Every structure is written in structure tokens, then in C-alpha cells.
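[retry 2/3] phosphoserine phosphatase: previous attempt timed out, resubmitting with same input.
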Amino acid sequence: MYQLGSSHRIDITAQFENVFRRHKRLFVFDMDSTLIQQEVIDEIARHAGIVDQVSRITESAMRGEIDFRDSLQQRVLLLKGHPASILDEIRSSIVFSPGVKDLCVALKRLGCKLAVISGGFLPLARYVQAELRLDYAFANNLKVTDDGKHFAGSTSGPVVDASRKAELLTVIAQAELIDHMDQVVAVGDGANDLQMMTAAGLGIAYNAKPKVQQQADARINQPSMLHVLYLMGLQWKEIQDLLQMN
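[retry 2/3] phosphoserine phosphatase: success.
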């Protein structure tokens, strides 16, 4: 299916037509290059003047060439001693992916719960949560020095890697009393999203790396994430009606 779609530059998805196709209850999103257009760790690195070193590690991790946990530790260590105020600068420059805000509005009006589970950092995940009115936000906790002014070069708490993402998706589904995983959708773009996408009833690769597209249930290679609603079986008129509701 992936090869056929790629050869014709179109998105092709085969789904069972059943009650769960339209009646989703939980959507879980990756953050970097999914809900937002940036890769946060690369933005931090750019402000810190270490972009080349960090980008090489990020790209290798996204392609699945190195373990995400190791790549995170390597990148965070490079940030040691740089000002923590960089996060405030990045927050003000975040750009949401096309269609994301409308998609979240539509899904909330359909009664869905929404979550961001990110291998990035919690302050920015919480900002995204507030802007999009998401119900849950999970990400890595980036440690700072005791005076709060500089990055300490490490994280605290469980690392949100591929397995942790899948685990958190399952925990949220259980908390929402969701019995059928067919009612759960996961959207991501990188190799560290694959376990989460597999755990969901429908895993969607959004403008993703080839490895991710090959393993995903569905692919969106269009700028707008609003196309997610088509995968639920909604028509354009229905989508417009949802967005125009008071």
C-alpha cells in the first residue's frame, strides 16, 4: 500500500468499515514535527550555538539508527551550562502544523480526548497542551541548575522513549475506560512513535520518515493534519459543519 501510494504520490489507506471507524475516543499525538513544525531540541541547540552536533544525533535517532534514550542523553549533555531562558524564547516562536488547531477543535466537538506524548521537553509540551486545549501532556523533564538559570545537562524521571510512549497511551486509554483500542488513534512522524502507533487501533504517519510510513496503518503526506478526519470517514461538508458549530 505504501509503495503504491508513493509511486503515484497519493495517500492510500485500507480500513475496515465498522462502528469504531467514526467513533474514536482518544487521539494521541507526537509533538515535534507533528503538532508543531519544529524539532524542539534542535531549536534549543540553535539558540545555544550547537545546532550541527545536535541535529546529527536527532536525525540518526529519527531514522532508528541509534537508540532514542542514548540520543536524548547525548543531546541533553551538550546543553549543559547554557541558559534555561532559551525555553521561553522557543515558546514564543512555536509554529503549529497546518490544520492542527482546526483538527483539535473538531475532535473535541466529537467528544474525543486528546493527548500529546513527546520525547521533547515538558515545559513546551504543556504550552502546546494549553494552546490546543489537550487533556493530557507527557514529555521529558529537563533538569536545570539550583538557581534555575542554566541547563544541568540531564533529565529527571522516566525517559519518554518509544516504549514509554506506548505505555502512556495504554495508561490514558485505561483511565478513560476505553475497552476497544480501535477507538484510539496515534499520530507521529519518527521511529520512536512506532510502538505507540502499534498500540493504538489506528496509527497514522504524518509526513513521516520512510521507515515509519512503511509500518503505519495510514499515511498523511499532505501539509494539513485536518486530513485525519477523512480517515475517520468524515466528508468535507461534515468537517465544515463541525468547525462552524457555536
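[retry 2/3] phosphoserine phosphatase: The chain has a mean pLDDT of 91.
[retry 2/3] clearing retry counter.
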